[in-house]
């Protein structure tokens, strides 16, 4: 019994001790709570890429090359307009004008690289060059046809006999034009054809005028002879001359030795009326090469 009483007493004391130890501290309850510290994430700053270094010497060289191509393109366009060649290749002329406007806009933009300017300038020049090459070939053919017709006119008045030196020079110009045309130098060929054309035409006109004057003189002489014959006939009736009179030749006498003349047709120098097949093949090859240069256009 005593043991049970001791146990109960011990339990009561333990409970009392626990109750006293768990009692809240009033000062602790009134003490302010420290604010919670929130760590903000660290933001990594992006690294600014280093500026791209431009080779200023190479860029300057490219710009200079671009300006030269630009000036050449302007000169080509001026020549096209002077010769009115756009009609022979309107497509490339229009494209050249479009690219030229784009190039001139780029030239005002200092941020554009010299390489880009050079590429655009070359494209402009290529378009105008195509017009020049094809246009001059057309004009050269037309000039040749005109020169050939003038030569036929000169041959009709025997220019090769009457004005041999000038005639042969004109023929040489014509043949040189053919050579230049075959070498793709159409602009120079035009000059030779025009020179030949002018000379042949001048020869025809001059010799035609001379022949007309000579013919008029012949007709006047014939008229004078006829008048003399009438007078002589009348004199024979009124005052006949006795046979054997000094100074009067016999009727069958040869007064002038017979003279032989060379055939004037032998002085005519022949030239082909149209281009030879070899020349035409060269022209075709050149057109194909020009097409490749312009990006494979057909």
The Rg value, from CA coordinates, equals: 55 Å
Number of alpha- plus pi-helical segments: 9
> How many strands in all?
0
The computed structural class is mainly alpha
Low-confidence stretches: 289-298
Helical content, roughly? 55-70%
Largest sheet: none
What sort of overall outline do the alpha carbons produce when their principal axes are compared? rod-shaped
End-to-end Cα distance: 128 Å
What is the N-to-C succession of helices and strands?
HHHHHHHHH
Mean pLDDT across all amino acids: 78
Provide the β-strand percentage band. under 5%
Describe this structure in words.
By secondary structure, the protein is mainly alpha-helical. Helices cover 69% and strands 0% of the residues. It is built from nine helices and no strands. Helix 5 packs antiparallel against helix 7. The longest helix is centred in the last third of the chain and has 53 residues, at 186-238. The radius of gyration is 55 Å and the shape is rod-shaped. It starts with a helix and ends in a 5-residue tail after the last helix. Mean pLDDT is 78; it is low at 289-298.
Key terms:
9 helices; 298 residues; mainly alpha; 69% helix; disordered C terminus
Question: Would you summarize the structure shown here?
Answer:
The protein is an all-alpha fold.
What layout of secondary structure does this protein have?
Elements: H1 2-21, H2 26-30, H3 56-83, H4 90-106, H5 114-156, H6 159-162, H7 164-182, H8 186-238, H9 277-293
Helix pairs in contact: 3-5, 4-5, 5-7, 5-8, 7-8
């Amino acid at each position: 019994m005593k043991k049970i009483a001791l146990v109960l007493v011990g339990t009561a004391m333990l409970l009392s001790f626990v109750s006293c130890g768990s009692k809240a501290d009033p000062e602790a309850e009134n003490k302010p709570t420290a604010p919670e510290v929130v760590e903000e994430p660290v933001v990594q700053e992006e690294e600014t890429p280093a500026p791209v270094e431009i080779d200023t010497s190479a860029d300057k060289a490219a710009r200079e090359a671009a300006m030269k191509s630009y000036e050449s393109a302007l000169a080509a366009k001026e020549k096209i307009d002077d010769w009115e060649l756009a009609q022979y290749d309107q497509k490339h002329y229009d494209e050249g004008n479009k690219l030229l406007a784009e190039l001139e806009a780029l030239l005002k933009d200092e941020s554009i690289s010299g390489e880009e300017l050079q590429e655009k300038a070359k494209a402009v020049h290529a378009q105008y060059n195509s017009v020049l090459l094809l246009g001059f070939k057309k004009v050269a053919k037309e000039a040749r046809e005109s020169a050939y017709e003038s030569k036929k006119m000169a041959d009709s008045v025997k220019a090769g006999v009457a004005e041999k030196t000038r005639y042969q020079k004109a023929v040489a110009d014509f043949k040189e034009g053919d050579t230049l045309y075959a070498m793709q130098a159409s602009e120079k060929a035009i000059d030779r054809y025009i020179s030949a054309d002018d000379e042949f035409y001048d020869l025809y006109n001059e010799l035609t005028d001379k022949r007309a004057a000579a013919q008029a003189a012949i007709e006047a002489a014939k008229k004078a002879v006829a008048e003399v014959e009438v007078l002589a006939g009348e004199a024979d009736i009124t005052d006949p001359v006795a046979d054997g009179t000094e100074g009067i030749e016999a009727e069958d006498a040869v007064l002038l030795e017979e003279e032989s003349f060379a055939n004037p047709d032998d002085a005519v120098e022949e030239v082909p009326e149209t281009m030879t097949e070899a020349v035409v093949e060269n022209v075709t090859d050149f057109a194909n090469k020009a097409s490749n240069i312009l990006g494979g256009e057909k």
